[in-house]
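Students often ask why we bother encoding 3D structure as a string. The short answer is that it lets us treat folding as translation between two languages. Here is a chain of 318 residues written in the first language.
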Amino acid sequence: MRLRIWMLSGVLSSLVGLPGVGFAQANDAPSLAGVIDIHAHVAPETKLLNFQRAFDAIDAAQIARIYGMRGLVFKEHHTETASWAYLVSQMVPGIELFGGIVLNRAVGGMNPVAVEAMALSRGGRGRVVYMPTVDAEYRSNPGPDKVPVSRNGQLLPAVQEVLKVMAKHDLGLSTGHVSPEEVMMLVRAAKAAGVNKIYVQHPNHGGLVMSMTQMKEAVRLGALIEVVLSGDGLTGGGPNKVVNAENPVMDYGPQKIADIRALGPQNVILSTDLGQPGRVNYAQAFQIALAVLAKEGFSQAEIDMMTKTNPARFLGLK
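And here it is in the second language, the structure alphabet:
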């Protein structure tokens, strides 16, 4: 099978062209062996949104493999990506690739049939179901262009149907961009339905602000907490700071470090939430962040827990 070898030189050239990044960084930075990014935005993106992607799914897989990462989970707000993961895995061996489905309007909203179709796609690469993101009511006012998950303090019946399908196929839940109160309802309902793999999507980032009390309760109920490297992330700012074009640029770094300490690394998943033009790529973000975490006093075992063990456990990997 012919790989897109012609693209590799372009990918490597693009790495050198990014601010403060060169081949030396790939050699001198912390090893990424075993690291899994569960939140990698990739193209082909839709023009329904203004969000652009720097790399398509093949580019992303090649970059991750070049840097020695174990795997990626492809995310796109308006379509399932399990089929992408299967196809790209045939073209780029040596990297574990997965996808999921985000329950925004483009897939029918809270659609259990779409979830089951994703779960049953060839290759078994569909592992994650995301609650609404760009179409979540919490992002703006309720309306016909939004996907609700609750009314009057109760999850909607369609949400319960989705959770049943997820439990049937042992899929993982990402809570999406819903409100903190809805996150807590989802975690409880998911556990009751038999969904055993849950992470709370970046609850300290991009306007999705949960209290530490809420995050600790979600952990007590069995959820992992996602801490993303976008925003100013864990980079300490400077020319290599990791900025997410979809969210305001804020100094999240110190707060995220504090949250990790308060929650405990055993309850945290680190991901990038990257893929935007003009930003460092997924692997470079991890290299920067791992160095920062080590400097902050986190042990290698703790760093491995957040970047390797917990993501693998969430995805059902050994």
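Translate back mentally: The longest strand covers residues 96-102. Keep this in mind for the problem set.
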